[in-house]
Specification:
alpha+beta, 2,3-Dihydroxybiphenyl 1,2-Dioxygenase, domain 1, eight-stranded mixed β-sheet, 17 strands, 26% helix, 34% strand
Length: 375
């Protein structure tokens, strides 16, 4: 009998309790303009700010929030900055996947003892609202996991930031929390990275796909999904596989100029309403699969709550596993480099990642690659 996802997750070592994703920090060329995009297009709300006005001299950081999703957009104020170098090499991209923990110092010590490379030693930051403890380690590429301990803090985000109110506050779009974040690694690096998550963070591999499962006529990739012990944090890891033409992972690695975060999946309880709202604000999604995909849906998926025509009109994909079904859709890259994009996902019991949609999804991605001359 096949184990459920809960049973697989329970096998994690879980020596490092994680309460969830605390925030995702992007290094960008112009944070003020990026803020306008994420507020306008995705409905994020202003929360906090740090920069010269708060005593920070080398950068400006804007914190945006929507329900349990928190993103930080950071830009350098000078050219001789590690932030500038990151943007020069990678374009706008994810630098930090921050993990909310109860004990940042213990988290750092546990992971370093298991082989992690330190990004930041323990720092304790104070202000009138209390203290936040932070520490960080490197994961794949230049991406970092920061451990954030905020149980003794009641202020806006963390010390060094001030509350940020804005007259421009578009409505939210129904996004609730970060479902998972996907990393792309180089050739023959997936198993090594998976082993790192097992050994260093105590995660467990709950799902694996090889190039026989994830392929089209032209390209292929391999993927393994890592989860922490309570299932709150999931990191699928992709690597390229041999194909007739260049895969989406190869394109990412070429234009990101290294390994990094490919996409973040944002959860909603009303994918129809969320996708309509996002489209009305200018968010571009990958092209819909052919009509035959939806003609076959009842036989492949069975009964679902949503009307198939409504799903088809928006280009939403549907898949089912032993525990239920899910609905998902993927944006086009949100920058000119064909790197970072977002997934919108609604789970109706399913805990998997849409394996039945891979072919339709990757063919849609390949159509975009072909337009860019990168297939």
């Amino acid at each position: 009998m096949t184990a459920t996802f809960a049973e697989k997750i329970a096998k994690a070592q879980d020596f490092l309790p994680i309460n969830g994703t605390d925030y995702i920090e992007f290094y960008v060329g112009n944070a003020k303009q990026a803020v306008h995009y994420y507020k306008t297009a995705f409905g994020f709300q202003s929360e906090a700010y740090a920069g010269p006005e708060t005593g920070i001299r080398d950068r400006a950081s804007y914190v945006l929030r929507q329900q349990k999703i928190r993103i930080v957009l950071t830009t350098a104020l000078r050219s001789d900055s590690v932030i500038s170098e990151h943007v020069k090499a990678h374009g706008d991209g994810v630098k930090i996947l921050a993990l909310w923990v109860d004990d940042a110092e213990k988290s750092l010590n546990e992971t370093v003892n298991r082989g992690a490379k330190v990004y930041q030693e323990l720092e304790i930051k104070h202000d009138e609202y209390g203290e936040v403890r932070t520490a960080g380690i490197y994961t794949y590429g230049e991406t970092v996991h920061m451990f954030i301990e905020r149980k003794n803090y009641s202020g806006p985000f963390m010390p060094g930031y001030k509350s940020w109110q804005s007259d421009y506050q578009p409505e939210e779009t129904g996004l609730l929390y970060i479902d998972h974040c996907v990393g792309n690694v180089g050739w023959d690096r997936m198993n090594e990275t998976v082993q790192w998550y097992q050994d260093v963070l105590g995660f467990v591999n709950i799902l694996s796909f090889d190039d026989k499962q994830i392929n089209t006529e032209y390209s292929a990739l391999m993927s393994k999904v890592m989860s922490n012990g309570n299932g709150y944090v999931k990191f699928p890891i992709n690597e390229p596989a041999e194909g007739k033409k260049k895969s989406q992972i190869e394109e990412y690695l070429e234009f990101y100029e290294g390994e990094g975060v490919q996409h973040a999946a944002l959860a909603t309880n009303d994918i129809l309403g969320t996708v309509k709202a996002l489209k009305s604000r200018g968010v571009e999604f990958l092209g819909a699969p052919p009509e035959a995909y939806y003609d076959m849906l009842p036989d492949r998926i069975g009964e679902i709550d949503e009307e198939i025509k409504a799903i088809q009109d928006l280009g939403i994909l549907v898949d089912r596993d032993e525990e239920g079904y899910l609905l998902q859709i993927f944006t086009k890259p949100v920058e000119d480099r064909p790197t970072l994009f977002f997934e919108i996902i609604q789970r109706k019991g399913a805990q998997s990642f849409g394996a039945g949609n891979f072919k339709a999804l990757f063919e849609a991605i390949e159509r975009e690659q072909e337009k860019r001359g990168n297939l």
